[in-house]
Amino acid sequence: VQLQASGGGLVQPGGSLRLSCVPSGSIGSINVMAWYRQARGKSRELVAGISRGGITNYADSVKGRFTISRDNAKNTVYLQMNNLKPEDTAVYYCNAVPAVGPWWGQGTLVTVSS
Q1: What is the largest CA-CA distance in the chain?
Q2: 110: Cβ–Cβ under 8 A, 6 or more apart, which residues?
Q3: What is the DSSP letter of 71?
Q4: Mean pLDDT of the chain
Q5: How confident is the model at residue 109 (pLDDT cuts 50, 70, 90)?
Q6: Distance (Å, rounded) from C-alpha 10 to C-alpha 72?
């Protein structure tokens, strides 16, 4: 099973993107799902997390700009990203919290540049 992220692309500073994450198979009932990102030359970091009950948390760097949501019936997780900044450029992945190694997919590249 892998978690397949999509929706990335090239966007200008101040723009928006919506990422989606869909499992390739059954992953059961996972409490906390999250979006992570890895910029070139940096380690992977947790960007936003959401519980099955809808409790969310965000990295300070994205608070007020990003919104995570999920569809429990479909095990799908979304990330609405607004007011994007060049420093948001990274490959974005989704996974559980704590992350499950085999579930890492290839991620989706978000590039914020003018």
Answers
A1: 41
A2: 8, 9, 11, 17, 19, 37, 81, 84, 88, 89, 90, 91, 92
A3: E
A4: 94
A5: very high
A6: 29
Three-state DSSP state, 86: helix
CA distances from 16 to 10, 26, 45, 70 (A): 10, 30, 20, 18
Under 8 Å between Cβ of 49 and 32: yes
Alpha-carbon gap, residue 25 to 75, rounded angstroms: 10
- Position 7, amino acid: G
Q: How far apart are the first and last CA of the chain?
A: 36
Helix (H) or strand (E) run with residue 81 in it: strand 76-81
Those residues whose C-beta lies under 8 Å from the C-beta of residue 45, and which sit 6 or more positions away, are: 36, 37, 38, 59
> Is the model's pLDDT at 33 over the cut of 90?
yes
CB atoms within 10 A of CB 114: 8
Token pair 């992945």 in the structure block, residue: 93
